[in-house]
Amino acid sequence: MHIFRFDSLESWIKTAASLWRDRLRVRPRLKTCLTSGHTPNPLYAAMVAGHRQNLVSFRDTELFALDEFGGLAPDDPGRCANMLRHHLVDHIDVPPNRFHTFDPDAPDLDQICHDFDLAIGSGFDLTLLGIGLNGHLGMNEPGSPADSPTRRVELHPQTVVSAAKYLTHTQAPTWGLTVGMKRLLASEEVWLLATGPAKADVVRQIVHGNLTPDLPASLLRHHRNCSLFLDDAAAAQL
Length: 238
Ligand code: PGA
Fold this sequence. Notes:
alpha/beta; Rossmann fold; 7-stranded parallel beta sheet; 3-stranded antiparallel beta sheet; 10 strands; 30% helix; 18% strand; binds 2-phosphoglycolic acid
């Protein structure tokens, strides 16, 4: 695991955006898995700005939402796909049919997960992940083994509480659909993103604690090309 520690959020954003633009230049058809949530939003804003300045194009790329909440209305701004659209996808030139999302309202969710896996095909080139306070990746909650498939999951109580921050109402989701650990660990390159003091403890556990499915993010220590992008506050306990 490579650890990149930045002394300001600005340098964290600038460096991650520059590296991402570079990956897209080298491989325009880059297949990228995108985390939603609050952490990646400044990075997405920088990519949108780069696109407006003609520094980067997503025309030939394929983007995949990492996960999706169940039980929220299709137009709920707290849905993962809607967050990704709002912060990134609606402002770049990725063709609509190359932004892949989960439909949690479909009658057959096993089929939805199967189809999503088919769309991923040979695997992700780049996977962007946030970290839950409980060490989850996407909705791979504590207890998710390394071979977890893309599937429907029940959310950990801490995730239910955390999800409230994305919502404008109090009907927090209790389940979701997620790309499984197996696909995440098979990604050619993984960027684990963490900023702010609230993530310092879980970052310490990921880097120095036990390697265990009880802390799914710790399993990335097995990955051959995983980079941890931290600002000073998130790196404070290393
Ligand atoms: P956050 O979510 O970026 O909003 O902190 C991270 C996560 O739960 O994966």
